[in-house]
Write a structure and sequence with these properties.
Blueprint (H helix, E strand, L loop, with lengths): L2 E3 L10 H7 L1 H11 L8 E2 L6 H5 L4 H8 L5 H7 L5 H24 L1 E4 L20 H11 L6 E5 L6 H6 L6 E8 L12 E5 L5 H19 L3 E5 L17 H17 L4 E4 L8 H19 L1
Parallel strand pairs: 1-2, 1-3, 3-8, 4-5, 4-7, 5-6, 7-8
Helix pairs in contact: 2-11, 6-7, 9-10, 10-11
The structure holds zinc ion.
Length: about 300
């Protein structure tokens, strides 16, 4: 059974100017139910996790200041939107969604989170709308619980996973792989274990060639027993922030390749959604829905 983390708080309204791409968190589950890709039972509601799980990744000072809403105005500016208790609760619950989905992935081979992919959150600070790094929290949880020995993070969001790279900089048990736009945010990039910088306007053929030449080799070398997949759909040509030129079909082929590789090698995979900023919400929902359709098709 495909287990998917979703909680009504995911759709907590943001300030007007940030609201648009966030509608996807409401529309995506509706679309999956409507078209029959998922039934109600596929979804589970995450809760508030034990704060130890968060503190295994984020510094005590940062987490306390975040929860107390006492971060400096400079730190809040870096995050990019005004903080509220609901937004912080939302991020904490999304992190639990990723933890639980990681456990479900061990059971069923794959599990997903309707949100998450907040890869710009560092150990001691938030950045670019990311407060807590959900996949880093999931990865650390699996390692600490001895549910995994070696984790590979495959971050194919168009933006570099800078926070994730920093968090696992000195951790031999987590290999961070990020493939992203060279000329895109973050302009000062961190060093992942493997970074692939793509030029602007990279198209499907080139994108998929690089991915197909890299991922199986990487898995062979690193021998992960668990994979996190950050499947942002901001690689689309229509994306307002992306700068790459992939099609919806190419994006789906990317997802199929990653998920089929995990399935073929029997490596459990947990997927967080990441970014998507095409001007037409239908494009965003369609591209994300493809990841769920493909997961159902391959695994169940
Ligand atoms: Zn992104």
């Amino acid at each position: 059974m495909l287990k998917i983390a979703y909680h009504p708080i995911y759709t907590h309204p943001l300030p007007e100017k940030h609201r648009f791409p966030m509608i996807k968190y409401e529309l995506l589950p509706q679309q999956l139910l409507h078209e029959g890709t998922c039934v109600k039972e596929n979804f589970f509601a995450p809760k508030t996790p034990n704060s130890d799980c968060i503190l295994a990744v984020h510094s005590k000072t940062y987490y306390k200041d975040l929860i107390d809403q006492s971060l400096s105005s400079k730190a809040v500016r870096k995050i990019g939107f005004p903080l509220s208790k609901e937004l912080i609760d939302r991020e904490v619950i999304i992190a639990d969604g990723t933890i639980k989905a990681s456990e479900y992935a061990l059971q069923y081979g794959i599990a997903m989170n309707i949100a998450g992919g907040t890869h710009h959150a560092y150990t001691d600070r938030g950045e670019a709308f990311c407060l807590l790094n959900d996949q880093a929290i999931g990865a650390k949880y699996l390692l600490d619980q001895q549910l995994s020995k070696k984790i590979l993070i495959v971050d194919l969001d168009v933006h570099q996973g800078n926070g994730t790279a920093e968090i696992f900089e000195n951790n031999q048990n987590v290999f961070t792989f990020s493939m992203h736009g060279a000329k895109n945010y973050p302009f000062k990039k961190e060093k992942s274990d493997l970074d692939i910088d793509l030029p602007n306007q990279t198209e499907d053929i080139e994108y998929l060639q690089i991915l197909k030449a890299t991922l199986p080799k990487l898995i062979k070398e690193q021998q992960p027993d668990f994979i996190y997949y950050l499947c942002g759909v901001d690689i689309l040509a229509t994306d307002k922030l992306g700068k790459l030129s992939c099609t919806i079909k190419g994006c789906a082929e990317r997802d199929r390749f990653v998920l089929q590789t995990c399935k073929d090698l029997s490596i459990p995979v947990m997927c967080s959604m990441g970014g998507g900023y095409s001007p037409n919400i239908k494009t965003i929902v369609e591209a994300h829905a493809n990841t769920f359709r493909i997961a159902q098709d391959i695994f169940f």
